[in-house]
Amino acid sequence: MLKVLLFFIFFEFAFSLDATMEIIKNKSSLPTIGVVVANNTSKENALDTKILKLIQKDLQVSGHFNDTQITIESEFNSLPKYKILRENGLDLYLIFKMKVDLNNQYIIDTKLYDVNKMELVLSKAYSTSSFERYPFLAHKIAIDINKYLKAPSIEWMDRFVIFSRYLDSKTSEIVIADYTLTYQKVVVRGGLNIFPKWASSNQNAFYYTSYKGIVPALIKKDLYTNRSETILSSDGMIVCSDVSEDGKKLVLTMAPNSQPDIYVYNTETKIKNRITNYLGIDVGGSFVENDSKIIFVSDRLKYPNIFAKKIGSTGVERMIYHGRNNSQSTTSDDYIVYSSRETDNEFGSNIFNLYLISTKSDYVRRLTTNGQNQFPKFSADGESLLFIKSTDKSYLGIIRLNYNKSFLFPLNAGKLQSIDW
Amino acid sequence: MKSVLKNTVLGICALGLLAGCASKDVEYDDSAVTNVDQQIDRVAVSDDKAQSSALNSNTDSQYSTDSLQKITNASVNGVKSDINGKVVLLESVHFGFDKYKLSDEMRKIASANYIKIDEVAQSYEGLKVKIEGNTDEWGSDEYNYALGLKRAKAAKDALIADGVNEKDIVMVSFGESNPVCTQKNTACWKMNRRADYRLLP
After folding, report:
1. What ipTM was reported for this prediction?
2. A220 Cα to chain B: minimum distance (Å)
3. Who contacts B10 (Cβ-Cβ below 8 Å, separation ≥6)?
4. What are B181-195's pLDDT values in tens digits?
């Protein structure tokens, strides 16, 4: 009898597990989710509609869901009409309501239902004291739904991106934002401030180039204490193009003798080590292979192309063998993404596109098809790519590499100069 | 009797376990509200005054990219510097696409600038020349800052060759951040590929 009982318990448990895992296992049949706003919700600032759209966008960008637009009148505390939801092809159903409490806190209550199992599976609340921060409410909700399904992490959606934008001639400001550019906060303004770069993965501080002094200077600014520190200055130009994993080493482009070259700077010893020694242009270096090698852009073939050099050695290796103008690269493990000029007529419509290559094979993949696509940046997990697209205006682009999907978010003020995440 | 009771108890326990399994996947978190403010509240802003008007505006009108669509006639041909009331126009030198070498024609302009600089320097001790390298908007921005610097250096080398002391020359590159025009056409891009000369009192 006991054996029968144990077998029955095991069978029930195993069936429940399989039902959940089956949802995400098969990429050709993604779960379909519908998101609705409850009837009895606050309409203040039309926040409910804004949050709805952002959650839907986040789920779409994740690549882990099919989302569908549904219109269902429903009270937050009522049981869902499962029959109607199934007829609409839903596997998951999220309903949320918003309220503003006596302390002026915006609170979002959420309930996630598994339509197939006809069960409430997740119930959570989220809050903020400021209306402008609502994007992060939406991102957190999408992340939690994704996490519940045990799908690959999309925690990056909750992180800041940092960018500089030109506002006018020789004038730019540095801004932190959410990845959709819906939330924005200026952190450096006044004069020309460019090439912001996170100092570490915890996003507590960032480096940028300031033109406030007589010569350009590399500044490190703490996001939370507002303290600034001048790291280095250099006649002509200075840019931090990469930071090592431990945050202790920087790849810089400097021109102390009016000659732009790549340097590695140790923030602890304050020693800079010159990596390139070519009389033309060497810029845009980034660490690869456990910081033992640098990938960089050089015009030593009389046009910009991507090269690699082992730190401490003299030899330089060419990395790209196609295209006549390849600039700006980003690296992740054995992969490089770079921006390439497509046509000989540089003023044509199909101008700069992004390519992904492997350093270990002949694999090449074109990632964009039109416009001016620049400044590619791999995410920390290497699964997504951030870039800047310029057509009639500036866009922040996200490419989800494993899902072959690309998304654009417009910048409505100014022109994107550079970006990091 | 005992075995019936035992089986009944086991059955009830089994039912209880199964009921627990059905609700095991549900995460109830009513008491713990996830607040998104903490990370953002800690961010300090250097200027406590009004936010940038680019952010305050809910429309595209004030600082849209259209606002950059203008010609600044002041520096189309060169830069005027005022040294103690004496206004000197130093003509900009221009470069080919992705190039940083002075053509013969541009070399003549550079030499003409040297003559003007030398004339002012005769009556103004400590005069310095600032050369600003610029590019059009094509290509990566970091590469363009380096390209602008190489153009500034080409102009600097020409001045040194003509007789200016190297210590009296300062260089900077503005890359593509300092256009004299923003129209999307060949003529405008050509105007932006330049090095400007500026006298510093």
Report:
1. 0.82
2. 13
3. A1, A2, A5
4. 988 888 898 999 999
